[in-house]
């Protein structure tokens, strides 16, 4: 029985499956936006499928901790075949990068990329290389926490390899279109990464210039503050000196006032003594006159 799949508006990929008499084919087909699509895979392409060694039940242990695994597989692809690498995951998310030329493919350098979630497996359509060679792929996976424990008691991911030989040119065209589009996406991503780096560099330069300007202005302000501090210190020293002189003058003035008070008291004492002497002389004079009159 041939299975038909329908994808509606704004869907970039349509995934089509055929299971008939032991043959299994999985291809991904490009669709235009805003267009309803219906495809019978059996009438489009027919061919043979050869499953190779799979990597199953790769356990995810720690919650929200990224696990990275570097793998390599010898994939022999003829001019009339291609290999589909499928990544399925339970209770997590995974990203796989692939390359024939880079032994450690990553986001910075890859030829193929796919993402997988619980509900959506990821697939790589690996076309024929220049010569049969080792295909390297790095998978970065992470177990997600907070999920239903009855479903996610066994967090893991699986990697399966399916080699498809085709005898219909339409599948070859579809595959080549996919590979071309994948290369275009990679180039677009590289372009966006370069633009982002250029923007980040420009922003960094602007920030550095701004910081340098701020540092220079801070240096000038610091010099002004140092100069004003020295002036304030000189003024404070001068004020302290003037204060000491003023205190000395006040002390001398108080001493003079004290001395003036002492002179005034001395004058009053002299005046009192003179009055006493004058009274005594006057009394003596009167006494003498009285004695003369009696004689």
TrEMBL record:
Indicate the family of this protein: Belongs to the BLOC1S1 family.
Q: Which organism is it from?
A: Octopus vulgaris
Please provide an example of a Pfam family that matches this protein in its UniProt record. GCN5L1
Q: Name one GO cellular component term.
A: BLOC-1 complex
Q: Which InterPro entries match?
A: BLOC1S1 (IPR009395)
Protein name (database record): Biogenesis of lysosome-related organelles complex 1 subunit 1
PANTHER family associated with the record? BIOGENESIS OF LYSOSOME-RELATED ORGANELLES COMPLEX 1 SUBUNIT 1, BLOC-1 COMPLEX SUBUNIT 1
A biological process (GO) of this protein is: endosomal transport
